[in-house]
Amino acid sequence: NTKKLLVTGGAGYVGGVVAAHLLAAGHRVTVLDDLSTGVREGVPEGAEFVEARVQDAAKVLDSSYDAVLHFAASSQVAESVAAPEKYWRNNVAGTMELLAAMREAAVRTLVFSSTAAVYGEPVTVPITESAATAPTNPYGASKLAVDHMITGECAAHGLAAVSLRYFNVAGAFGRHGERHDPESHLIPLVLQVAQGRRSEVAIFGDDYPTPDGTCVRDYIHVADLAEAHLLALDAAGSGEHLVCNLGNGSGFSVREVIDTVREVTGHPIPAAVRPRRAGDPAVLVASAEQARTRLGWQPRRTDLAEIVRDAWMFTQSLGEGDA
Ligand code: UDP
Q1: Where in this chain does the entry annotate a coiled-coil region (predicted)?
Q2: Catalytic residue among 13, 87, 119, 139
Q3: CA of residue 252 relative to chain centroid, distance
Q4: Which atom of ligand 1 lies at the shortest distance from residue 187's CA?
Q5: 252-253 and 216-217 strand pairing
């Protein structure tokens, strides 16, 4: 069944990969993106492109659309600490406008990019969706506020919604890869060392209560993540807000990630232990049980070397001078 879909943030990393998967599945896709962090080349071929903010979704949405997949958001933790108002404006106020436009156009299905950052410091690992939510930064708080907003919209106005709480998204798909400016994420940073663009990688703390002392994270391949979004389109009933974690359920330490990059690239990757980064929990690993049972989702690219290989191919494809 072919659907007509609006993808906000479809010029970005995750939104672009999901849009490409939607098109491959035969759906019709309109990408709405203001190109504040996304790039025009990130919009997959075959998608209609509208350069606009999510606050202007009403200009595009009408009752011919079957659903919205909402990726457009500010997503840098450190920036959210320095400029929280940007996160309330873009993520919370922006989504409020989007929900109003959807109500107006009678588009009653939503898939939302939520995050593991809504949980904060976990009490038990693996983390289930019923775990306490206590975000430790404005980014996580803004995403949690939107999750609450969506719950109310479902109950009051019959929206069918799925919030997908991403753990550490990594890897690449075709020409869609992870790229931030400035870069703050571990795998792209280590790959910059392999590429000779950075002399060493910092290990933020090696005295955590983990097997090798460095932080453990649940890295999930962006293509696996994308497949969950396709399944989510049909998963919720009217009035229901389903919340699903997306992770592999297994963790890798910072040192294991660096070792894997050494194996994949053949580069020695000099690493230096630095002080802990504020707000980093020791271990973040998902229970993805809910995604398995409710979405019928099964991650297929769980080998860290495969994730790193795909990210490395993308990094190498970037031209000189590309950040
Ligand atoms: N990290 C690190 N050095 C870096 C960047 C990140 O040791 O230069 C660590 C960070 O402390 C965390 C893990 O790598 O434990 C993953 O960090 P990232 O920023 O990629 O994702 P997060 O888990 O913060 O969402």
Answers
A1: none
A2: 139
A3: 18
A4: 20
A5: antiparallel
